[in-house]
UniProtKB/TrEMBL annotation:
Cleavable signal peptide: none
Start and end residues of each Trs120/TRAPPC9 N-terminal domain: 8-364
Protein name as it appears in the record: Trs120/TRAPPC9 N-terminal domain-containing protein
GO cellular component, one term: trans-Golgi network
Length: 629
């Protein structure tokens, strides 16, 4: 049974991992990423509380250095993962880049100034970010032989050198893993303190600005320091939906360089190629006339304050202060509702209100402990509606996916804790909620990127498997595999031989093969190593065929066996497995799936009534992707 996936994204600091220097060997890069993933969750009780720390001055009143909270990191490797940008994603603090880690493989660098040059390259790259909580270059497998060079490197603040990796017998650790644990604990404390300092700086600046009669605004002052960027509320949904993909992590977050943020701007690289309105930002003309319109300026200030309250709730979640986060979210939701009503439901106000509701729902989720919460369902429904009003389908899809996993966990908890009629009624109700939210997620497909569609289908199949709907799992896995093939169908039709040689197309084929094999397993089509002459679950014995003929003769011939649709899906899964095997050029798989497919057609007379064999077109297997919903 699939394990229920926990909803942790709102509580994770987003950190990009970038290979630096000469080409880092892929095996080494993969091992470094696995090492980082082992330290992606750091309990607060394992961190060293800074000396002189004043809890009464902290903006995180619920922060406990000895409590059960944790700091979580989401490490994203730009060398191995696709980075998609969601429309309006910076409305969530967890979607903003908080740090960049460079990975350097010292043996692959030049002997002379290799590490120094790599450090300069890394520093030049991170300058493109306006502000980061942390940026470090990790230099692995350093020999420390040149003492003079080591002394020079020690003066570089953002360089961390790791020794050669040696296993420590009896501990399960190594010299590098222990060193990394100390480094990550230090960085975690630094992140918390930097975050506190930045928030205090903003709150004090706002307190001073509120006493001024001038229209001084923190956002339009042209500041690019850490405080202004962390609490930047200049996030609006795009007018034209066109999700961007950024292959280069460091080109993602360039900000405007002017002293003011124009109402219509094309300089933000996150929204390149489209115009978007920013009602929360004053134009230069508006800055000059705002004093003549105090009511309008006051309304704008309230909107900014409401959005900052939402971000303060996000940062409380990041440091495991759930009670403080709920306090900020409640204030933000009340203020944002008022702004959304006054603006007549503008996309920007709808987006921020939906994001605040999602943050509040996450806090309820952490406190519910897999128990059903009517308030959570109510607030989640509101959040979905406001995301729809804002037109941010990617954020809505991600939220729906997490909401689906919550319903799945509640269904599993109900099945284990209840008995009798109460268990049945509760289970039916929760599964109905699950189906409703999944149907809403699938209705967003026309506006989603193909990669996001595949991810949603795979997660949906996992939810259904956990809930016990095994055959429906095959339906979604088959559709996900079809999407992987369909997004490269044009290249395949133009040049069938060269298309499969492209690395991405090859990876898509291999992924589609895995998904279809999983779908076949759910439908009872056993894999290659299992078949040893015994009958498969979909094979009909002579006794079954007699029963089938008798049942057909007792009717008018139009009655269908309830398993009709699943027989057809088995047929299409096997046919697509044969298609993929042919594209991959795997003769063994082609022969095996061809025999299984022919055997299925021979042994299942029912398929003659539901499949037009002529449309199969022999073994040419013309592939036409078709939605299975």
């Amino acid at each position: 049974m699939t394990r229920v996936r926990a909803w942790t994204r709102p509580a994770e600091f987003l950190v990009y991992v970038v290979p630096v220097g000469d080409d880092v060997p892929p095996p080494e890069l993969a091992s470094y990423m696995r090492l980082l993933q082992r330290h992606c969750v750091l309990p607060l009780r394992s961190l060293t509380r800074p000396g002189g720390y004043a809890a009464e001055l902290s903006p995180f009143r619920g922060l406990s250095w000895t409590g059960s909270g944790s700091l979580r990191f989401r490490f994203v490797s730009v060398a191995a993962e696709r980075i998609d940008m969601c429309n309006g994603e910076d409305v969530h603090a967890s979607h903003r880049v908080m740090g960049v880690l460079g990975l350097c493989h010292c043996p692959s660098l030049a002997q002379s100034t290799g590490l120094q040059a790599a450090y300069v390259q890394f520093q030049a790259s991170v300058r493109r970010f306006p502000a980061l909580l942390v940026h470090k270059l990790f230099a692995f497998e350093h020999t420390f032989e040149d003492l003079r060079a080591v002394q020079e490197y020690e003066r570089l603040d953002d360089l961390v050198m790791f020794p050669m990796d040696h296993e420590l017998q009896g501990t399960g650790e190594s010299t590098v893993s222990l060193h990394l644990q100390v480094v990550m604990n230090t960085l975690a404390v630094h992140i918390v303190m930097s975050l506190e300092s930045a928030i205090r700086s903003v709150t004090s600046s706002l307190a001073v600005a509120s006493n001024l009669t001038l229209t001084t605004d923190l956002d339009s002052a042209g500041r690019e320091d850490l405080a202004s960027v962390l609490l930047d509320v200049r996030v609006e949904p795009q007018v034209t939906h066109d999700a961007q993909c950024s292959p280069l992590v460091l080109s993602r977050d360039e900000r405007n360089e002017g002293d003011s943020f124009h109402a219509v701007s094309t300089s933000d690289t996150r929204l390149s190629g489209s115009l978007f309105s920013s009602p929360s930002a004053l134009s230069p003309l508006g800055a000059g006339t705002a004093a003549l319109k105090p009511t309008r300026y006051t309304s704008r200030r309230k909107r900014q304050d409401a959005r900052r309250e939402k971000l303060l709730g996000d940062y409380n979640v990041l440091v495991s202060c759930i009670s403080g986060a709920m306090h900020h979210y409640v204030i933000a939701i009340e203020m944002l509702r008022e702004e959304e009503r006054h603006s007549g439901g503008s996309p920007g106000d709808a987006l921020w209100l939906a994001a605040a509701l999602e943050g509040y729902v996450y806090c309820l989720y952490t406190e519910s402990q897999d128990k059903f919460s009517a308030e959570l369902v109510e607030k989640a429904s509101e959040a979905v509606a406001f995301y729809a009003n804002a037109g941010t389908t990617e954020l809505e899809s991600l939220f729906i996916e997490n909401l689906g996993w919550y319903y799945t966990s509640v269904a599993m908890s109900t099945s284990m804790s209840m008995t009798g009629e109460a268990k049945m009624l509760e289970s039916v109700w929760v599964k109905r909620l699950l189906w409703d939210v999944l149907e809403r997620g699938m209705s967003l497909f026309p506006d989603l990127q193909s990669q996001r569609q595949v991810e949603f289908l795979i997660q949906t199949s996992r939810m259904l498997e956990t809930a016990g709907h095994h055959r429906r799992v095959a339906l979604f896995l088959h559709e996900a595999a079809s999407l992987l093939l369909a997004r490269n169908a044009d290249a395949q039709s133009l040049s069938p031989t060269s298309a499969t040689k492209r690395p991405q197309w090859r990876r898509d084929l291999e992924a589609a093969l895995v998904l279809e094999r999983m779908a076949a397993e759910q439908l009872g089509v056993q894999d290659l190593g299992i078949r040893k002459g015994e009958f498969l679950p979909w094979e009909f014995t002579s006794q079954y065929r007699k029963k089938w003929k008798k049942s057909m003769s007792a009717t008018d011939g139009s009655t269908n066996i309830p398993d009709n649709a699943w027989l057809v899906i088995r047929f299409h899964v096997l046919r697509q497995l044969l298609t993929i095997a042919k594209m991959l050029g795997n003769a063994l798989l082609v022969g095996t799936y061809c025999l299984q497919l022919l055997e299925m057609l021979v042994c299942n007379p029912l398929l003659r009534f539901v499949i037009d064999v002529k449309s199969w077109n022999g073994l040419q297997l013309t592939f036409t992707p078709k939605a299975a919903f």
